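User: Teach me something about this protein's shape.
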Amino acid sequence: MDAFPPPAITSVLFACTFNAVRSPMAEALLKRHLGRRLYVDSVGVREGEPDPFMVTVMAELGVDLARHRAKIFDELDDNSFDLVISLSPEAHHRAVEMVRTMACDVEYWQTFDPALVEGSRDTKLDGYRQVRDGLAERIRRRFPDHGAIPARPEGSKGWSDFFR
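Assistant: First, the predicted structure itself:
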């Protein structure tokens, strides 16, 4: 019996708690990785405001998220996604609830919330960079066939070195 190939993913939704840090980062990184080859969106469980540290670390890659407008699940224009990737426990529960009657996969990528980092501005930015770089690596591994985000270059300090 011939095995069926997995269905093609044409749309991805990233979800976190406030759609202020992790999910907009992931959305922007996947869009940068794949361009317009798939539809990518992000959402939060509760209303939030874009985080200025998130905007700063994404700008280091040349990605402008200053105008990102956080939205919640109820504000989605379309909820027909092939894959929902949740980045926080609360978002994972909401994603599973949303897709229970749909043919949609849900993946949980446990992702630290860098907004919890305390200390100086530089310490906080380092925490946000670690999350950004971790998401970029996970996206590169999850969507390998497209090859737009290569492995971190040897000896670099992070993805920002690569994208310069």
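Now, about its shape. The CA atoms of residues 100 and 106 lie 10 Å apart. The longest helix spans residues 121-142. If you'd like, I can walk through any region in more detail.
User: That's plenty for now, thanks!
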